[in-house]
Each structure stands twice: as structure tokens, then as C-alpha cells.
Amino acid sequence: MKNNKFVAMVLIPSFLFLFIFSIFPLFYGLGISLFDYNPSNSVQPFLGLANYKKMFQDEIFYKSVKNTLIFCIVAVTGNIVITLFLAEIISVLPSKGMKTFFRMILFIPCIAPMVGTALIWKYGIIGTRGGLLNEILKALGKAPKNWGLTTWQMMLIIIIFTLWADIGYNVVLFTAGIEGVPGEFDEAAKIDGAGPVRRFLSIRLPLMGRTFAFVAIMTMANYFQMFAQFRVFVPGGGQNDSAMVLTNYIYRTSFTQFNMGYASCIATALFLIVFAVAMVQNRMMRADWSYE
Amino acid sequence: MKKRIVSVFLALAMTAVFLAGCGSSDSKDTKKEETSDNSSASSEEKITLNFWCHQNEAWVVSYKKMAEKFNQSQDKYEVVVQDYPFSAYSEKIQTSLTSAKDGADILAVWGGMAPDFIKTDALAEVPADLVAELESDYMEPTLGIYQKDGKYYGVPMEYNLEYGGMIVNKKLFDENNLSYPQTWEELRSLSKQVSVANGEIVETKGFEMIDGDALFCNYLAMILQQGGQYLNEDNSVNFATPEGIKAMEEILSMVKDGECDLEHLTAGDYCYNDVYQGIGYMASVGSWAISDGLEGYQLTYGEDFEYIPVPQYGEQMGFASETGWGIIVPEVGENKEGAWEFVKFFSEPENLVEHNIACAQLPPRKSLLDNETYKEGLPQVAFLLDILPEGQWMGPYNTSDMRTRFNQMFINLCQTENPDIEAALAEVSQSISSECQIGYSMK
């Protein structure tokens, strides 16, 4: 009992921090969504559910939801498949030094600020003049392209960039997960004649359920909130809003159009979508937290 | 026990940092100490006025000179200039307007972003003596957006004109023994002759006017120069007129003929950069771009580049101008009186001319159209002074939103095989009229 009191006492600052910077803004945002909120105004007119009604009639909102879902589904699936594959390859490397080296190489883009790397990609990879993609096209005897005019190709480029920038983190988690699976299961399967692919799919992958669930839920929640690369690659949302996602739309509505009430309304919708997806994932991936 | 001591220590440290972060400080005094370029013993007794502006090398130098001049002219106030990147400037203003203590006392603001602040009650009304000057001596397009309910909430620093002049690469013209075009036909013919296209990309560009600013302003000028009009009496817009369709066909042919591409429209930058970089011959832009060539690119005027008139498209001179850069004062500011004193000082004709010359801007006052100091200081843009009285105000619109919609429509037209221009113009007119018109009354 005495110990519990002590724990509670030392946790107070953390809870205070969490309350002021996470929980309070969440409810404050929810409140703002009911107003025609502009901090510069001395009076904030109450609108009730008018912002929500407007949102359900807003074409760009629906486009943003669709694009956000496409981005999340493709990028999260790609991320998990690639990181699992890389983690499996790293786990079979012969020495610890080699494992560390490859993990480090893959982790480097995660350390770099996303805005910086996105800018390098924007001008260095897909830049109209001197960009790597256009130089490759020229070398192949084809005419260069203005990638800023593309629609699904631009979304694909952003997905590829995101995978490049973010896979290191999950590789580390999956490598740890694979290494955490007791060796005897693998050995037993090997004796029974199972090949490496079968052993991975039928033994190691199911036993990594808890790591898999954690990675899938966290990556999905994280990707719903991806913003920096969209702001850099397609600040206006791309051609006819073809790459407009909810986070960028929230930013545009609040800080370009200064319609913060409506932006909070869209933010509430994003919160509910992420919450619902995380709940569904959590239920579907209920992991067996032991190896027995 | 050791763990407990560490835990307590960490919790205390976290609380201390947390409280320090959330605590208030008299940041104005700190700013004064940190940022004042000319802190002197006497300035400590003065009231500090923070003047915020966006980052533009030549402009910031001019603002600082003006502040210095004002600081020396009286003993009560000390103006300190602080600059911020343009990309984040609008958000900075928004935050500043909510703070009486930590925000700016005076703000430079672009006409395109001004309606977002004027529509609130966060701006101080322009004092009566300045209003009298605005109404008697300032040209209509410079004032347009600063009015709400018959009152003024901003004072123009310039006449914003994105039409009328173009930067030309003198070296390219000289090397190829070409002379500057005098008529619209010559311009198009020369542009076709010198441009080199490679697929969607034009490697060497002839005449460029397709970027976020120039496309819309040139298009409106082309309508007005044919004797047409896009602005209706009820302030709605209609581009689907015979003049509007003809002007659009002309611009689309520039892209289809490979004279220029859509690179700057998609990248969000300006086409005059191509001229400064030696990959473009001519680019339509406001005179403000001259200072970028001199300061940013370190080029020499008259040797590397020149600023000359864009040949007129139609029979009569006409163009539309949006309200340009001006000064606003927040209502919550503690030193509004001092702020307006600085604005009045800034607006005095001799000071305004100095600033306009330093920034290669056009003067907003009618009385400065014949100003000899201006003409001597900026002989290269003097030709624009003659056409300024022919300009009309673009209209009561959020011009940023207006251009975004128009430019997207233009890109769509360029990417369609046989576009229905009239239908596209009618659709964008309807969308701009209903979505971009300013929600408050001007008169």
C-alpha cells in the first residue's frame, strides 16, 4: 500500500503532462468543432453540429478519407511484408556484427528528419530538372516527366518514400521478435523435414503474434497521422486533390483558411477512424502472449 | 532505496521543467535585448514596438532602415524589425493577433492573406487622418481589400502589379543576336523560335507567364485589353465570355506549342527563376523580382538581365491588380498609438518612395506617379507608372483561393485532348463566385 502511494506520487508529473498536452486538447478540439472558431475573434459563434453537416457534404473530405485509407492499407501492408522479409534475412545472418550492421543501415533513414529527407526526394529524386527519375528516363531514351502533374503515381512515390524512411524501426522490432522465438520449435520442425519458408510461415510467424500485433497496430495508427511527406510533396493536395490526406486537409483548413472549427471537426473524424481501426485490429490480432 | 531516490529526483526534475515551460516571461524585454540592432542607452527608456515582416533580403534591409530613421526621429518609441519565412508567416500573424504582450505591434501583410485577418475583429482601425490620405491620394487597387464596413484596417505600402513587365535574359538575347519583342505577335513568334521542348518539359523556355501569380494576372489583363470584363455588377465573376475564351485559347496554345510548361505551376515557384538561371528568355513578373536577381542571384542589371514591358495583347490597356503589401496594427496591441505613429511615418511620401525604390516596388500614392526621385531611383520600372491609372481592382475575393481554383482548371485543360474551354471557364467562374468571395461587406 505504502509502495502504491509512492508510485502514484512519482507518476503525478507524467499524468499532469499527459492530461495537459494530450487529453485536454483532445476534448478541447472536440469542443471547438462545435464553434465557428477563429482565435483572432473576440467572439466565437456556436454552430452546434453545422460543421459536421458541412463535413458530410464536403467532396474533398471524402477524397481525403479515401486517399488516407489507400495510403494506410498499401503502405502498412508493404511495410509489414518488407520488414518481415528483411528481419528474417537479418536473423539468419551468421554473425552478430553483420546483423547489427544491416539493422543500423536500415535504421539510418528513421533518424533523419522526415521533412529534410522528403525535400531531398522531391528535388533530388522526382525533380523535373536533374531529378534521378527523369535522368533515368532520359538515359533510356524517353522524355522526362513533370511528376507534379501525376495523380496515382505521385501517391505511389509518397508510399515508396514512406517505406524507405520508416522500415528500419519495424525491422528492429521484428528481428527482436524472431530472436525471441525459442529455438527448439524451429529445430523440431527442421527435424520433421520442414524447409526454411515453411518453418517461417508455420512456426516463427505464428509464434511472433504479439510482436506482429504490436507492429501492425502501431504502424497503422502512425500512418493515419503521416503529414510531413504530404506537406512537402503535395502541399496543395496534388492534382485535383488526388493525394490529399486527412492530416494535410486539417492543416490546410486550419492554417491556410483559418477555419479552425471545421478543422477540429475533421480532426475528430480522423480520431474516430483511427480509434475504430485500432479497435478492430486489436480484436482481430488478439495475441497469445505465451509460447505454451 | 536508491531507485526511490532516483525516481523522486526524476519526478521533481520533470515537474520543474514542465512548470518552467508553461511559465510566463516578459519576452518583450528579452526580445528587445536580443534583437535590437541599435540598442543604446537611450533606447532603454523607449517603448519597444515589434515590427514583423517576411524574409526577403532587400525588403528586410529597407524595413530596418525605416525603423532606424523612425527611432532617430523621436524619443518615445523604438521599432525593432523581426522577419519570418514567408511559408510560415501567415500562421505567425494569426498567433500574434491573439497575444497582447508577445505578438507584434505592427505587421507587414500581403493583400492576398489580409482578408483572413480583416474579417476578424483583431485589427485596429486606421486613424482618421490617415484615412483622409488613403481616400485622397491612394490608388483604388491598393486599398480594395483593406476595407470592411466602410472602415479601413490596413495601409498600403505598394501598388501590387504582376502584369506589365517581364524579366529578360539579356545575355541570351545578345548571344543569339535577337532584339526584344515590341508587339504581342513578335513575342509569340520569338518565343516559338527559341524554345526547346522535350516531352512534357521545356528545356529552354521562350516567354513564360505560367506560374501561381502570373498566369491569372496575365489572363485577366488579356480579357480587359480586348474590351471585355470578368467582374459582374453583383461582384460575381464570369470568365466564359468571348474575350475570356479567346484569352484562354491563346495561353493554352503557348503550352501546346512547347514555349513553356507547367513546371512552376506544379512546383509552386516563379518562372522568372528560369530567366535568371539562363534557361528562359522572358518571364512576366512584377518589378519586385528585380531585387531577387540583384541580391539573390547576384546578377548585374543591364548586363545579365533587364526588365522591359510585356507587349500589349489587346487594343486597349487594361489589367486587374490585387491589393499588395501593406501594414496592419493588432487591436490587442498595448502600444497602438506608437504603432500608428510609425505607420504614418512610413507612409510619408519621401519615406515611402525610399522604401519602394529599395524593394523595387511600385508606389501606391497617385502623387508619386510623377516623382522624380522614384524615376531616378528605379528608371527600369518607370514605364509601369504610366499604366498604373489604367488598372482596376481584382475584386472582393480571397485571391489565393481564387488562383488555386483557376490554376487547377488550367492544368486540367492542358491535360485534356480536346477540352471544352467554355464549360471549364463557366464552372470555375461559378466555383470562384460562390466559394472565394469575401464574406464581409466592404462599404
Span between N and C termini of chain A?
Answer: 33 Å
User: Span from first to last CA of chain B?
Assistant: 74 Å
Q: Structural class, from helix and strand content of chain B?
A: alpha/beta
For this structure, the CATH topology of chain A is MetI-like fold
Bin the strand percentage of chain B. Answer: 5-15%
* Model regions low in confidence, pLDDT < 50 over at least 5 residues of chain B: 25-41
Residues in helix, % of chain B: 40-55%
Give me the side-by-side strand order of the main sheet of chain B: 2-1-3-13-6
CATH superfamily of chain A: MetI-like
Written as H for each helix and E for each strand, in order along the chain, the element string of chain A is HHHHHHHHHHHHH
Major β-sheet annotation of chain A: none
Low-confidence stretches of chain A: none
Oligomer: heterodimer
Give the biggest beta sheet of chain B. Answer: 5 strands, mixed
CATH architecture of chain A: Orthogonal Bundle
Give the count of helical stretches of chain B: 20
Q: What is the class of chain A in the CATH system?
A: Mainly Alpha
Broad CATH class of the largest domain in chain B: Alpha Beta
Task: Describe this entry's structure for a reader.
The complex is a heterodimer of chains A (292) and B (443). Chain A has helices spanning 2-32, 50-56, 59-91, 96-111, 114-125, 132-139, 152-180, 183-191, 196-207, 209-224, 228-233, 246-256, 260-284. Chain A is mainly α. Chain A has a single domain, classed as MetI-like fold (Orthogonal Bundle), CATH 1.10.3720. The radius of gyration of chain A is 23 Å and the shape is globular. The two termini of chain A are 33 Å apart. The model of chain A has no long low-confidence stretch (mean pLDDT 91). With 443 residues, chain B is of the alpha/beta class. Chain B has 2 domains: 44-160 and 323-388, Periplasmic binding protein-like II (D-Maltodextrin-Binding Protein, domain 2, 3-Layer(aba) Sandwich), CATH 3.40.190.10; 165-321 and 396-435, D-Maltodextrin-Binding Protein, domain 2 (3-Layer(aba) Sandwich), CATH 3.40.190. Helix content of chain B is 46%, strand content 14%. Chain B is built from 20 helices and 14 strands. In chain B, 45% of the residues are buried. Mean pLDDT of chain B is 90; it is low at 25-41. The interface between A and B is large, with 34 and 37 residues.
